[in-house]
Automatic annotation (TrEMBL):
This is Uncharacterized protein. Residues 1-11 have a biased composition (Basic residues). Residues 1-38 are annotated as: Disordered. It comes from Araneus ventricosus (Orbweaver spider). The lineage of its organism: Eukaryota, Metazoa, Ecdysozoa, Arthropoda, Chelicerata.
Length: 38
């Protein structure tokens, strides 16, 4: 799951914002920054 999440998010690029926030639920900025940098 961890390997598929970052892969899909990176491919979407901008979509990762919507997916990241939906996946996290509360702290989207922290998760977004980490995933985007990774």
């Amino acid at each position: 799951m961890s390997i598929t999440q970052p892969h899909k998010k990176k491919s979407n690029g901008v979509m990762l914002d919507d997916r990241g926030a939906s996946d996290v639920g509360s702290p989207p900025p922290i998760h977004r920054s980490g995933n985007t940098l990774s």
